[in-house]
């Protein structure tokens, strides 16, 4: 039996990791690129040890891990959510909307048959949109569980990334899903058009003292929450950004650096993997490239929402200029959505502390 594409991808990612380890040990340029991230003035040996600890993070993004006993409870919770994520993306990708039926109904307001046809076309789509919204709430809970596991004392963020490798991979997969979902949503105006028509019809019938059966599934309160969700250009990313900010504000005894260092480390790893030709050329498919880019952009945005001065300040632990440059080196059709996410969903891009060079790069 021929191996499935997923099997080939897993195998190629494993081989890619092995290449990274062998080359990284012998390649000083790779070492210096990562060591620059730490800004340490101590000995090279100390920095080298820290780098050696960072190398396994590469594996988190490109391989499959079995959870340790300590990780199992959180891993099982998040795994159930990630399994559903594949179906959510497939449904969103095939979402065609009821544009034709809605136009015919609007153009012929007195034709009851066309009104009913449009309503019957929209209702199952709204039920699908409700599932997407409810999934965002489960994704938010999964992210919170991962943040708790990857930042809790007594371990430092780097130690967590070493110890909880399966959870680190799940964190990356959540970000990959989030950016994928939002890219699809941004390019599909039918979503908001369908939902707007649904709400207008509900309101019109309510004025006429009529209640449609569909209201039992999506009542007015649910419709209001869904409306706020889909009004966002990047609704899933907004959900995760709010969840991360809330996590930090609710855990006042946890140093904020424990969260931001975890995010900046992941951004650094992705950037170096993408900008170093010796490693980039070993990506066996564009999916791996996209995975790294989406994870990098995702953690940058979360960092920018959580850190007091954000990701674009000179004191940021994220090399924003390098991250943006590596994105702009890719084909525009594959990164425009990611660049837009940095332009429009970050908090500190337009701060006075952001350099003109970085702003120019995102214009």
Automatic annotation (TrEMBL):
Keyword terms of this UniProt record: Lipoprotein, Membrane, Transmembrane, Transmembrane helix
Which residues does the UniProt record annotate as the domain CYRIA/CYRIB Rac1 binding?
Answer: 66-359
What stretches pass through the bilayer? 15-38
For molecular function, the Gene Ontology terms on record are: small GTPase binding
Main localisation, per the record?
membrane
Q: How does it sit in the membrane?
A: Lipid-anchor
Q: Which GO terms describe its cellular component?
A: membrane
Q: What is this protein called?
A: CYRIA/CYRIB Rac1 binding domain-containing protein
